[in-house]
Description:
Blueprint: E1 4-8, H1 14-30, H2 34-49, E2 57-63, E3 66-74, H3 78-81, E4 83-90, H4 99-114, E5 118-124, H5 128-136, E6 140-147, E7 154-162
Parallel strand pairs: 4-5
Antiparallel strand pairs: 1-2, 2-3, 3-4, 5-7, 6-7
Helix pairs in contact: 1-2
Amino acid sequence: MDDIHIRRGYLPGAIGRVAELHAAYFTENWSFGVYFEAKVATELSAFLSRYDDLRDGFWTATVHGRIEGSLTIDGQHAREQGACLRWFIASDKLRGQGVGDALIAEAKQFCRDCGYPSIYLWTFEGLHAAHHLYRKHGFSLVEERIGSRWGVKVNEQRYEMPLD
Length: 164
């Protein structure tokens, strides 16, 4: 698709659209519900309300101006704990077209440029395409535990990647 654009920074409607993308995918495929959508919208809103362009990253992938993917780097505690990768998603329209790969590459470069020691993320077992991308980019699975941070009991997984 030639009309895919990856942009850094807030776009009007981003909070609602990123929450919608997450809710649609995870409800259809994992039976998540309103708790999860509200959690994404609330936490993404809080993040963007304190967003610092020098410390944090928020990327969107758009097609004809419509957000079809996203990835966030929360750098608030990055120097002590590593940068936190969150809200990584691509719509059905973009899956398999290299957009996720490009979003992760942008985020890694940003974290390197900021001098962050590492990047980490929480996900859960079964998201094979995303896990493949994480491993491809140098992340390793370092922890697993049963939990319900997404409103449904799943095998939560923490991936980490040191930055050299």
